[in-house]
Each structure stands twice: as C-alpha cells, then as structure tokens.
Amino acid sequence: MKRLYNSPDTVVSEALEGIALTHPELLRVAHDPTYLARVDAPVAGRVAVVSGGGSGHEPMHVGFVGPGMLSAACPGELFTSPTADQVEAAVRAVDAGAGTVLVVKNYSGDVMNFEMAAELLAADGVATETVLVADDVAVEDSTYTSGRRGVGATVLVEKVCGAAAERGDSLAQVAELGRRVCARSRSLGFALSAGTVPATGRRSFELPDDEIEFGVGIHGEPGRERRPMQPVDALVDRAMAAICADFGADELAGDVLLFVTGLGSATPLECSIVARRAVQDLDRRGLRVARNLVGSYMTSLDMLGVSLTVLVLDEQLAELWDAPVRTAALRWGR
Amino acid sequence: MKRLYNSPDTVVSEALEGIALTHPELLRVAHDPTYLARVDAPVAGRVAVVSGGGSGHEPMHVGFVGPGMLSAACPGELFTSPTADQVEAAVRAVDAGAGTVLVVKNYSGDVMNFEMAAELLAADGVATETVLVADDVAVEDSTYTSGRRGVGATVLVEKVCGAAAERGDSLAQVAELGRRVCARSRSLGFALSAGTVPATGRRSFELPDDEIEFGVGIHGEPGRERRPMQPVDALVDRAMAAICADFGADELAGDVLLFVTGLGSATPLECSIVARRAVQDLDRRGLRVARNLVGSYMTSLDMLGVSLTVLVLDEQLAELWDAPVRTAALRWGR
Amino acid sequence: MADRLSATDLTAVFADFQRAVERDRDLLTELDTAVGDGDHGTNLDRGMRAAVEALAAIPQDTPGGVFNLVGRRLVSTVGGASGALYGTAFLRAARAAGAAEALDAATCTAVLRDATTGIAERGKCATGDKTMYDVWMAASTAAAAAAGDGLPALLAAASTAAGAAEQEMVPWQARRGRASYLGERSKDHRDPGAVSSRLLFGCFAAWADA
Amino acid sequence: MADRLSATDLTAVFADFQRAVERDRDLLTELDTAVGDGDHGTNLDRGMRAAVEALAAIPQDTPGGVFNLVGRRLVSTVGGASGALYGTAFLRAARAAGAAEALDAATCTAVLRDATTGIAERGKCATGDKTMYDVWMAASTAAAAAAGDGLPALLAAASTAAGAAEQEMVPWQARRGRASYLGERSKDHRDPGAVSSRLLFGCFAAWADA
Ligand SMILES: Nc1ncnc2c1ncn2[C@@H]1O[C@H](COP(=O)(O)OP(=O)(O)O)[C@@H](O)[C@H]1O
Ligand SMILES: Nc1ncnc2c1ncn2[C@@H]1O[C@H](COP(=O)(O)OP(=O)(O)O)[C@@H](O)[C@H]1O
Ligand SMILES: [Mg+2]
Ligand SMILES: [Mg+2]
Ligand SMILES: [Mg+2]
Ligand SMILES: [Mg+2]
C-alpha cells in the first residue's frame, strides 16, 4: 500500500521535525529522549500538564501542546507508549516547581511507563498527579480486563486541565478537574476499516465488505464485536445508546459536550453526518448539546471510523472548555 | 466500498444539517436554494465575500464561513458547481449594499454559474466583483485549455478577502487584494489514490500500486501525468520545483506563506512529513517561510494525496492573514 | 405530417429526452469519469427530472414557454458546466421562439442558431474545442441547410449531423472544460456533453419521424 | 560444565536472545496483530539491539551489571507494555544479582524469583491472566524446584516449563494487556509476550547446554 512516507522507520521522527519547523513560535522538540514542549515552559508558578502515548493518533497529543492545554507531549513509536525516560525528561523540562499532572490513557503500556517515570521523579522530589483516562464503554471494566481504555475523553481532559493550570490552579485542583472530566465522560468508536501499519503496509485487521468493528480501539486492535454494516445513522444510534446507558441513572442530565472525532480517513462530510445524528439523539433524550467539537482530533492512522464522546458539563467545566487555547490543532480566544 | 453514509443522495444535505446543528452561533443554512451564511450577515457597511463550489472539498468552503472570512458559501452537489440560483440567493442574503466579492475557482462550471448569478444580480443593481482563482501549475495556461484550475490559493484568497472586508475595505479594494493573492500564488498536488465517489462506491480513477497521479485535480479528475511512486520527499521536491519554476524571475523572494493541505486520507503525520520537506526546500532557496498552514483544509473526498501552495507575502497580505478569524475550520485571534 | 412543433409536442420531446438521459445516465457518468469528474449523467438526470416535473405541474401554451421553463429548471437544479450551458441554450431558445403558438422550420432554425450561440458565449468556446458545442454547431448548420425541406427533414438532418459530429470529435484533444486538463490524455475519449446533446437531437428527430 | 553464569556468559545469552528476537520479529508482530496492536516484534527488536550495542560499548564485569544495563536500555528504548515489563524484570534481576562475579544455581533462583515478582508488580497481573507473567512464573517455579540439580538442569527445567506454559495458555481468555479488550475473542491465540519470554528462557537453556 502506497503512503506519503520516506521509510517506515522515519515516520515519527520526520513528522515531529515537520511540526517543529511549522510551529517554532509555539513548541520545541527535544530528541533522545523525544518530547515536544511549549517554548515558554516552564511557566513560573503554574502547574504543568504532560501527556503522551503511541504515535499514530495525531493531532493528539503533539497537536495539543501550547498555552491553555499541554505543557509537553511524549510521542512514542507508532502505537507504542512512550518510554519512562521520555516522560521523565518531558516533566523535568516543563515542571516549574508547582508539580505536574500526567494525563495517561488506560493502556497497560502507558500506565506502566508513566508510573515508572513518576517513581523516578518522586524519588527526586518532583510532585506528579496522574489522571487516568478510561472512558471507552466498549470494554467491560472488570477484573477480567485491564479496565477501560482511554479514548476521546483524553482530549477533553487535556483541554480542561490545561485551562485550569493556565489560570493558576494548584496541582491537586488541576488533577481533580481532570478526574471530574473522566468521571463524567463516556465514549465509543466503530470502524469500517483498520489503519495501515507503515512497517507492514497492511491494515492491522481486515474486515469483509459487509462488516464493521464495533467498539474498536485506536491502536489498530480489533473491537469487541464484529457486526453487519449498516447505514451510519443506525451505527450512531447504537453507539449513543451504549454511551448513554453507561451513565448512572441521574448522571446524564443538563448540558453536555459532544465530541465526534474521525479516526483517520473519515471525511469532514462523514464527521458532520455522524454529528448530526448524535445531536438529534441527545436532543431526543432531553439533553442540551451546549458545546461540541467535531473533526479528526484523535485518530488511528488512516482508520475509517469515528469515536463519539459525551461529557456531562457543569459550569466550571464549560468555563474551562471555553478558556483560550493556542495549540497547533486546537485554537480559540487567542 | 463502505463509508459513513446513509445514502449517496443525502450525503451533502445531511452533512450541512450536521454543520448547522453544531455551529448555531456561527452560521445558518438555507435550503432551496442551498447556502450557508454567517448568522450576523448582512453586516452593515461591510463588503460581503461569497464563495462556493462542488461539495466533497470540506472544510472548504462551508468550514470557512464566519467573521473574518466568508459571508456565505454555496455548496453544490458532490464535485458539481453550485447553480446560479444558489449563488444569487446567497449574495442577496449577505450583501449589505457595499457589494459582494465572489471568489470563484477557475472551472468551467463554477465560472459559468457564478457569471450567470452576477448577471442576474447586476440587472437588479447588486454590485459584485469576481476574483478568479487559477493557481494550479499542473495545467498549462494556454488557449488549449480552460486555463489553470483554482486549488489551494482559494483558501488564502478567502482568508485575505474576508479580513479585508472585515476591516472595512471597499469592494474594489477587497477584490484587488484577492487578485493580488492569486497573482502571487502557485500550487500543485499529487495523489496516490483517488477519492471514492458515493454514488458508485468506486474510486474515480484507479492507480496501480507503483504509480501516482502528478498534478491531480480535486474533483476526482485524473492529473496530467502518471508517474512511478517514489518516497514522499522526492515527490515534494518535484512539486516544489514545478511551483517555484512557475514564478517570474524576481517574483519569488522574501517572505512566503506555505500551505500544505491533505486531500482527504493523508494523515496528520503525512502532512507534517510533507511540510517538513517543503520548508527545507524553501529554506534552501533562500526564502523565509514566515507563515504556514498545514492540515486537511481542501480535500477531494477521501483522496490520498496532498496539494502544496506557495504565496509570496507582502506586509499587507501578512497582516490580513494574521487578522482574527472565526469559522468552523479556521480560527484564531477570537 | 408533423410540420409544426407545438407546446405539447415540445413537452413530449423533453419527456422523451428525460427518459433517454435516465436510461443512459450511467454511460454519461462513465464517460465523464474518464475525462472529467464523473457527474454528467447524474447532473443531467437530476435536471431533466425537475424540468419534466415542472412541465407537468405548470403546463405551457407555447414552445417558448416550454423552453423557458426547462431552461430555468436546469439552471436551478443542475449546477456544473452542463447546467449553465443547457440552461443558457434553452433560455435563448425561449427568447427566439417568442410567443409563437408553434414552431415551423424557419423559426426552428432561428431557435437552434440562437441556442447554439448562447452556448458559445456562456462557455467561451469555439468549434474544435471538443465540447457539446461542436455537436450543437453541427446540428444548427445542418438544420439551416435543410430549412427549405420542412420541419421533419430539418430535424432529421440536425440529428444525423449531431451523431456524425459526436463521432468525429472522439480522437480530438479537448480544449475546454475539465477534459482539457488532461491534455493529450483527453484524446480518444467521447465527450459526455456531446453524447447527451446527440441524445437530445435524436429525440427531436424521433418525434418528427413518429 | 557451565555451573556458573559470568558477565561474559550473560552477555552472550543476551546476544543470542537479540538474534532470536530479530529472527522471530515478524512472528511476534503477527501474534500481536491478532490480539493487540502489532508492535511486539519491532518493540523488542529495537530494545534488544540497543541493549546489545550498549553491552558492546560498555562491557560489564558482573552479571548484575549486565542485567542492569539491559534493563535500563529496554526502559529507554522500547516503550509499550513489554518495555516496562522486561525492563523492570531485568532491573530487579540486577538488584538480586548484586555484585556477585558469577551466578550459581541458588543466586539464579533468587534472580528469577525477583524478576518475576517485578513483572507482577509492574503489570498488576496474576497467573492465569494470559500474559508473559505466566511464562515467567512457570519458569521461576520450575527453576526453584531444580535448584539442587545445578545450574544447567535449572535452566533446562525453566525453559521446558516456559515452553509448556506458553502452549498451555493458548486456549485461555486474556485478562491483562491489550488482548483483554477482545474478551472471548482472545481465546485460541498465542500471547506475544509469552512467546518472546519463552525465547528468552530457551536462550539460557541453550547456553547451559553448549
Ligand atoms: N467551457 C465549455 N464550453 C462548452 N462546453 C463545455 C465547457 N465546459 C464543459 N463543457 C461541456 O460540459 C460537459 C460536462 O458537463 P458536466 O460533467 O455536467 O459538468 P462539469 O464539467 O462541471 O462536471 C462536457 O462534456 C462538455 O461537453
Ligand atoms: N498488564 C500486564 N501484565 C503483564 N503482562 C502484560 C501486561 N500487559 C501486556 N503484557 C504483556 O505484554 C505483551 C505485549 O507487549 P507489546 O506489544 O510490546 O506492548 P503493547 O501491548 O503496549 O503494545 C503481551 O503479549 C503481554 O504478554
Ligand atoms: Mg504497542
Ligand atoms: Mg462536476
Ligand atoms: Mg462532470
Ligand atoms: Mg503491542
């Protein structure tokens, strides 16, 4: 399969070079270990917010580094969580003495590497708080799994924590707000085809023409269920039903934020068609879609699919969502 | 081929519904004839800027409606230019008496339909000025063609005209600035695979595994030349060489704006890799990439490819580029 | 003998054209996929459906009225190059037909000439550019030459010339429209607009022949 | 007889493991594609290359030094679950090996036990979860039982138990790591980390056997 690469081995490093070359006013890239950091970090008196994960999900996380969102991001190899070294170096580069919130998606590899980094940093007196994102209702949260995966809510947590840090909240407050977003978010994704892995040139799983993966992961891993292909409205209905059913009886009320992200090859037309149905669905449930974000913000290489996230807002979360942000991929208010 | 649609016939209308539902504070959608307009239009004392074209290129143009950019956009059927009716109705809805600039990509259908609309409007005393975008160096500009196609520069023209209109420039001034962007821009695109046409479920052209379309169009039409596949750097070098060679001897100097747009399925990783090489290339030519825009802003359904645009800046164009803009797809400064 | 074309006749011809376009929609789209953007069949099909619906809803008394309504519906519903071109052609035809109750050979010649000129002006095209204009020009010229032989002969001559022109231009290189972007690669392809135009003239000839 | 494992010996074992991973990289990646994200082969290959390079650049005097360097390089270069798990295992092994010049059967048993515990702690996993931990636990238990029979027998027993465990768990359902997301669908697949761990114990046994 043809792609716009020079070599599978240089995909990540060349892309990071490109990001650095096109955003010199915003961020800088460090190598060995690799991380991207705000040019103006550490910001005196402010809590730092650091995230990271495997590459292949762009613009998450590298596109979210900047004032009002992440202080630094640690991009691992493709679909491979960053090393503990990367996380440690990134935190050391941006921590201003007020501590650092680590936004970690709940995948074994991410959890373990961030944990190792946190241990090393703690031993050296650098305070960190971890916000573990585990919003994917496709995965049963039981002792029989590693727990729910972190997906779309990650972007929301990063925005809210970044805004809280920017206004001067304490380490404990920023972490609490991040955990509040986690507690009030649920997500689900589905895919019509998997992404193409650069190293092999093949799709990470193959689907027949009349089937889809429901509850798909964003790391090329298959979903929990293979289902017949249906018109997109029916797929959105099914996803929304699963998301809404997962909230506690009285948790789902009032204003919500709807986040629709294309997973790679979904066109803006397709994302809008999905958003249309999702808004209508929430409307019918008596909820008000007070905020929304629609586009390809968390991807899985060139996977054809979407992921839907519902976050139940409160006043504070809405305010932090609206706060100015300036990153490569998300920007408003400045 | 599976896609996230309900039916090929409703792709455009449902997507527009989705856009309207998710951006009520920004724009409204009119039907029969169809157009999207700024909620606050007509804006008293300001020139209006209207564009349009076939659908399938999102976020262009519908994602660029809002303060600082387009007053209205007329989305045609997929890859089909809008009707004269649509253009006429859109202009009537947003014209504030100060006249309207029509940003038209140089395709026979677009040119003729906008021209018919302009004739009808003129007969009714509504003043329009047309800015014809024809920046695609893949097409020879001779009596043997309909002239160069309008591609990436369209986005830049819309931004600059929108900013000029916002600050209160006259109809003639806004049009002059748009034409200045046209005169100082050159573009070229290439594709590794064509987009999938909803009606047929097939790619609009098929490429063998070791070939690409060089100088490809954005309407599913093949390019001018079929070439062997190469690593992306070699393709970018070839595109940049063609773009730069097309400028007059002393036209290409000083500060430039580089615009890299994915054509649909190019991942952010791939766009960044392309941008990296293009920046390096311009650097080697002694030019300064003073501004850049990298992402999928003008697409061709799910085509896998990119289009590169170079605009030679002057102080005024840079200032208008930097001016605040608030649209669904492009936003800064507010 | 069908020596005069009434509003009812013209309405029937357009209904026939609509069916022809619907039948050959995929062919037209396929031809446009090879040299353009693959929408000519769906474009014209959408437009002619709307036109025929409008004619049923608002029956017209004069051929000029029919041309006008069809032209306006095409302009409103098609978009693309063909929407503007067919729309302009029929609107010009309406003007040339004026308020006449029916069209004889002489009026028909004038109608066709003005419609053809409308295409040239709208498309900024000339003969040899390998567009639908070549077909209209051939039909118009043949019609003018046959004007003295009565309406059926005129329409038969126009249709024959249209068919011949559409064939003749296949090896040419396109110089207008999307196909022109292909340069040399546009050679040896049939032009979609020329094919649909040929279908139109075929419908007129079939009416005269019936 | 290879009754004690020196720094040189251990360096050779890791070099052998690096070659084994390189050879079976595509197999490991393929297994991980079926139940995970398809990177286990490339991950471990990248890490072991870096580890072997480091051992060549900074030769170590003690087995503890070798374990430490390998563990640190894995932590720095692999990422993912396996980077943290193998890294933690070898760093714990280094601590257990201490400053000893060479490892005898008793120390080896302790080294293996501590490394295995490290995996459990880092991975928050238990036996039966169908991860590499099951293989390490089986190897560690077998090694402890064979500790009285000398180092070669110990390593042979560990390798045999590792192989048996890797086979035995194939029908199980995964409860940790990415494979756990598949639920029932993770059954009847080989666990990539279990397979690479089995390769590692095979390399130790091959050294003892040579
Ligand atoms: N400038 C032009 N002058 C005359 N005819 C043209 C011109 N441009 C296009 N055409 C005709 O229009 C046809 C294409 O129509 P269609 O596919 O519906 O529109 P579009 O090219 O906008 O997709 C071509 O086959 C050609 O005959
Ligand atoms: N929580 C865990 N506890 C123990 N082993 C685990 C755990 N998670 C993953 N593993 C092991 O790691 C292997 C996968 O490694 P690798 O593919 O390199 O990392 P990743 O899963 O991050 O892509 C699995 O086959 C499994 O043996
Ligand atoms: Mg991985
Ligand atoms: Mg078209
Ligand atoms: Mg066409
Ligand atoms: Mg893996």
Task: Describe the structure concisely for a colleague.
The complex is a heterotetramer, with 2 copies of chain A (334 residues) and 2 copies of chain C (210 residues). Chain A is an alpha/beta fold and 334 residues long. Helix content of chain A is 32%, strand content 25%.
Describe the structure.
The complex is a heterotetramer, with two copies of chain A (334 residues) and two copies of chain C (210 residues). The termini of chain A are far apart. The radius of gyration of chain A is 19 Å and the shape is globular. Chain A is 32% helix and 25% strand. With 334 residues, chain A is α/β, with parallel strands linked by helices. Chain A folds into two domains: 173 residues, Dihydroxyacetone kinase, domain 1 (Rossmann fold, 3-Layer(aba) Sandwich), CATH 3.40.50; 148 residues, 2-Layer Sandwich (Hypothetical Protein Tm841, Chain: A,domain 3). By secondary structure, chain C is mainly alpha-helical. Chain C has a single domain, classed as Alpha Horseshoe (Serine Threonine Protein Phosphatase 5, Tetratricopeptide repeat). Chain C contains nine helices and two strands; from the N terminus they run E-H-H-H-H-H-E-H-H-H-H. In chain C, helix 1 packs across helix 9, helix 2 packs antiparallel against helix 9 and helix 5 runs antiparallel to helix 6. The mean pLDDT of chain C is 96. The chains are: A alpha/beta (334), C mainly alpha (210). Bound molecules: adenosine-5'-diphosphate (ADP) (2 copies) and magnesium ion (MG) (4 copies). One magnesium ion sits at the interface of chains A and D. One adenosine-5'-diphosphate (ADP) sits at the interface of chains D and A. Chains A, B: It comes from Actinocatenispora thailandica. Chains A, B: This is Dihydroxyacetone kinase subunit DhaK. Chains A, B: One of its GO terms (cellular component) is cytosol.
